Amino acid sequence: MIFDSALIVSGSVGGTALAPAITGQTVTGASAVLSTNTIDLSSGGTPSGQVRDIGEGNDLVKALVEITTAFTGLTALTVEVIQADDAALSTNVTVVGSSGAIAVARLIAGARFEVELNARIGSTGQRYLGLRYTPTGTGTAGALLGHFGAEYTDGQKFTGGGYAVL
Q1: Rounded Cα gap, residues 108 and 82, in angstroms
Q2: Residue 57's pLDDT band (boundaries 50, 70, 90)?
Q3: What is the per-residue DSSP string for 17-33?
Q4: Helices (H) and strands (E) in the chain, counts
């Protein structure tokens, strides 16, 4: 998978191509946690104050959350794609996609979850895009990498044996 550092909103990716170092954002406690970074939808050559509509044209951008440290202590985690008027993701927040509650048994290291965005993301007129993580129960451990992109492959597809290539 190719990461675009401008689209990583939770955690970080460093190291080298042969030895990548992925550091997840910690999500513990009992209250919602916002992604440490946001995406500014007005950057990239748009006129001042005009928000880009990333939902027009091709397939919508999706959020992908990868569990880097297994979650414990909580019963479920909900991942939401949110937009807001400020970079802190606290003013006029709008939810534009949700994973629903993901049971803690599925929140193991290496697990991946995709969250699709609502096609009307551009009509909100909000400038900042990020993720919000809401635990059910009180988490004592758990970290994740959250980022955006157009297409994902999980790299975990296998075919059964017994086939000959002629």
Answers
A1: 24
A2: low
A3: SSSEEEEPEE--BSS-E
A4: 0, 10
From 2.40.37.10, 3.40.50.300, 2.60.120.1110, 1.25.40.10, which CATH number describes the 28-46+55-149 domain? 2.60.120.1110
> 36 or 121: which carries more pLDDT confidence?
36
CA-CA distance, 40 to 127, in Å (whole number)? 6
Q: Mean pLDDT, to the nearest integer, of 76-87? A: 94
- Supply the pLDDT for residue 72: 95
Asked if pLDDT for residue 159 goes beyond 60, the answer is no
The more confident residue out of 59 and 66 is: 66
Select from 128, 134, 100, 130 the least CA-distant residue to 114. 100
Give whole-number Cα distances, 67 to 53, 70, 83, 86, 135, in Å. Answer: 29, 7, 22, 27, 14
Amino acid 71: pLDDT: 96
Degrees, nearest 5: CA angle 99-100-106: 80
From CA 83, how far away is CA 104, in angstroms rounded? 26
Encoded tokens for 41:
């939808």
